[in-house]
Amino acid sequence: MGKKVAVLAVNPVNGAGLFQYLEAFYENGIQYKTYAVSETSEIKTNSGISIKLDDVITNLKGHEDEYDALVFGCGDAIPKYNENAEKQFNQDMLAVIKAFADKDKIMIGHCAAAMFFDNLGIVDGRKVALHPYAKTAVKGCIGTDEKTVVDGNFYTAQTENTIPELIPEILKALK
Amino acid sequence: MGKKVAVLAVNPVNGAGLFQYLEAFYENGIQYKTYAVSETSEIKTNSGISIKLDDVITNLKGHEDEYDALVFGCGDAIPKYNENAEKQFNQDMLAVIKAFADKDKIMIGHCAAAMFFDNLGIVDGRKVALHPYAKTAVKGCIGTDEKTVVDGNFYTAQTENTIPELIPEILKALK
């Protein structure tokens, strides 16, 4: 049986990033379920389109073993993250990311993904690709200027625009 | 005042293609309105996510003058197009594309977009980028193996994966 991916999307999410992963999974027969980092499963893209995901992040807690990989779908929610850091859905997001990493799942993400991985102390010593703004914020991992980096079970892309180069690596890992 | 774009999305639509345009427009302050080629404004991506667009294609008919450009958002609806060619929303789509072209608007699309442009006789003699499967189907235009082609007011990309190379050209035209 093929591997299964939990795809997290913040609210609002960058639709170009999110759907590059989803369409690639769909076209390659990789199972996935989408989780909104929000109180409801209906969220928006940065570009203002309402999208209805499969479930909310809270319902992923405790179900990490059902998946082989996690995708962090970044978006315009992140520059405002600090205003909402205490919200339950963001706390649940951190708990879920940590649980996936502790179970050595495949960890995938672009833009600020590596910053969250770093804050959680799950990517220490590894190289990552990440948004130039986030590069100054990481401490335990090695922030690079690469478009994409694969280091161990961590698959990171600098921004949504560099995801195309990461997709073949992700597909290799998930097949 | 900046230019305004009507974005058509077939049902189902390739989300990676659609949102590469939308997020680029959003980030560059270009106005856009999204139209579902469907009876309702809620459609699905190839990858199975419900998305709610601004309006339906029928309501764009007769309003072409309000826009400077048209995007054709391709998707898995197209391989099944012939089964649904007689449906009103598909007839309306063709009428709208023709009207935009007749008014010399900027015409943008990937994958099968150039095939529809060709069938409507609006791109005769021009070079286009298009899906390899569609290349054999075009008659009046010059189907190429290029990743992207700009010829006059026609901006075409081979598939959703080559849209990143077309975006800078589109933005130049729309600013």
Give the strand tally of chain A: 11
Terminus-to-terminus distance of chain A:
9 Å
Rg for CA atoms of chain A: 14 Å
Beta-strand fraction estimate of chain A: 25-35%
User: Could you spell the SSE succession of chain A in H and E letters?
Assistant: EHEEEEEHHEHEHEEEH
The greatest interface between two protein chains, and residues involved on each side, is:
A-B, 25 and 25 residues
User: If strands are numbered along the chain, what order do they take across the biggest sheet of chain A?
Assistant: 5-2-1-6-7-11-10
Largest sheet of chain A: 7 strands, mixed
Give the helix/strand class of chain A: alpha/beta
> Regions of chain A with pLDDT < 50 over 5+ consecutive residues?
none
Count of individual helical segments of chain A: 6
What is the typical, i.e. mean, pLDDT of chain A?
A: 97
Helix content of chain A: 25-40%
Note the overall shape of chain A.
globular
- Assembly state (oligomeric): homodimer
What's this, in brief?
Two copies of one chain form a homodimer. By secondary structure, the first copy, chain A, is α/β, with parallel strands linked by helices.
